[in-house]
Amino acid sequence: MQKWRLPLYAAVNHVSAFFLLLTGVCYLLLWRSQNVHGWLQFSYATSLFLAFNCLGIAQLWSDAIRDYSNKLCEIMGKKKSTTKVREIKAFESVPKRTVLLFVGWLIHWTFLSAFFWLTSMNFDVWWRFR
Q: Which of 6, 33, 35, 97 has its CA 20 to 30 A from that of 75?
């Protein structure tokens, strides 16, 4: 795998997130003059901002994630079962595992939230033009 590919993807995600942040700030500044569609657009931009930032972080940490997975596979495949269980429990207590699981969970839910807000905007447009 090329070394430059994932850092490039992460940089592009963070640049996109920056412009989504600007969009959200504009909607916040004009909050009183917004209608329901504007509030939905703000929520959609905020969800995508969080999703792109988390995805960029995960892409920057991809080597750590791969190393973590390889280390866990090595532990599971090499020794007797009692030693294996002890090593796995010791390895799983590392805070990195919690952070990686949280980032993965956050990516999943922020993209799910973004598609919820997009669906809500589509329903709003359909409701107005039906």
A: 6
Considering its fold, how many domains does the chain have in total? 1
Q: With CA atoms as reference, report the closest residue to 50 among 102, 85, 14.
A: 14
Q: Whole-model pTM?
A: 0.74
Give the separation between CA 107 and CA 17, rounded to whole angstroms.
13
- Domain span at residue 62? 5-129
Q: d(Cα 15, Cα 101) in Å, to the nearest integer? A: 24
Q: What pLDDT score does 58 carry?
A: 86
Contact 42, 88 (CB under 8 A): no
Residue for token pair 């999943």: 108
Give yes or no for a contact between 79 and 87, defined as CB atoms under 8 angstroms apart.
yes
Identify residue 21 by its one-letter amino acid code: L
115's CB contacts (< 8 A; 6+ apart) are none
